[in-house]
Amino acid sequence: MWTFQDAIRAGAGSVMCSYNQLNGSYGCQNSKALNGLLKGELGFQGFVVSDWGAQHSGLSSAENGLDMAMPSSAYWQNGNLSLMVTNGSLEQSRLDDMAIRILTPYFRFAQFEPGTGMPADLLALHELVDARDPESDKVILQGAIEGHVLVKNTNNALPLQKPKIVSVFGYDAVAPARNTPTGGLFNKWGFGLENTLTVPGLGYFNDTYLGRLFLSNEPYGVPVPGASYNGTVITGGGSGAVTPAFIDAPLDALQRKARADRSIIFWDTNSFKPTVNAASDVCLVFVNEIAAEGWDRPNIVSTSDRYQHKDRVFQLTNPFTRPTQHPTTSSETSPASARTPKS
After folding, report:
1. How far is CA 45 from the centre of its chain?
2. Domain-by-domain residue ranges, the chain?
3. Nearest-5° angle of CA 74, CA 75, CA 76?
4. Which region, left, alpha or beta, applies to residue 205 given φ > 0 means left and ψ of -120 to 50 means alpha?
């Protein structure tokens, strides 16, 4: 429980209960976990919220520690929760406790008046609330740097030593063509998948299909995104995805560095079998792998191909170059590996 204890000591206002069962009892109605350990031993005074659709009962979940059901509740709605109090099934003190726990973090953390903050419709006219803190910039950058894994560094190719000619290839080297809010509950921008326009074996990837995958309304084994062929990956997909204020893609950073080092930089991010300038000192290939909440990743796209789309893996025409795989979690620093041409 150390992780939870540290979070509560740091002042967490809410804890989410999970879909899975704990010792035979669903996490959102497990009295030992929620009442005994979390609210009892650890002294948690905030509210417990269900993961989306993780509530499996009405009275049991209320008695056993669930305070808020999301996104709605077939068990508590239409006055069912208050009816439990009226007919004596649920103590009035427990209903009061649920309300107090939900409101307490609001008054503890809210720095604005009710009615402001996240608007109901991002596309409607609204006042911008900028929650970014400049003090966090260094921590965010350091986290991105430490999140990279250098898989190979053959012949100490990295860091680059002011090469004269750099050639850049791959769909992950550039920012997506679009980064703007779109409407609808299930939309690719909000789920971090704006750079995923197609799915191998399907031919398209739209908001409707995203919603069906997310809600598990498609049978197991249907085509799902394994790579994002329309721009760099800056976040994992799903309800916890990041919608950035800006995107600093690999090619953007490389061009700034090329200008500073007086290097020449060529690029082709559209072709899957690009022509390579044989005079290049360095060739960098950026590909990606995408994972999202709602489905399992089909395969590691850059090395295997379940849907036989081998044109999706770069086959450089220059025998002296080898692919470089870009990490899926950041786009601001060096690629994971690189090999320079041999003379």
Report:
1. 29
2. 2-109, 149-343
3. 100
4. beta
Q: Is 261 a catalytic residue?
A: no
Report how far residue 6's alpha carbon sits from residue 78's, in angstroms, rounded to the nearest whole number: 38
Residue bearing tokens 């596309």 = 123
* pLDDT at residue number 193: 92
Least confident of 9-13, 270-274, 338-342: 338-342
Number of H helices, E strands in the chain: 8, 7
Cβ neighbours around 5 below 10 Å, total: 15
DSSP letter string, 268-309: ESS-SS----TT-SEEEE-B----BTTB---S-TTT--TT--
pLDDT confidence bin for 317, thresholds 50/70/90: very low
Helix (H) or strand (E) holding 109: helix 92-109
Architecture of domain 149-343: 3-Layer(aba) Sandwich (3.40)
Whether residue 295 has pLDDT greater than 50: yes
Q: What is the DSSP letter of 168?
A: E
Tokens 């620093």 -> residue: 333
Distances (CA, A) of 127 to 49, 67, 135, 190, 213: 28, 31, 23, 19, 33
Rg of the chain taking only CA atoms, in angstroms: 25
Question: Which residue in 6, 51, 172, 296 is the catalytic one?
Answer: 51
Question: Do 180 and 246 contact (CB within 8 A), yes or no?
Answer: no
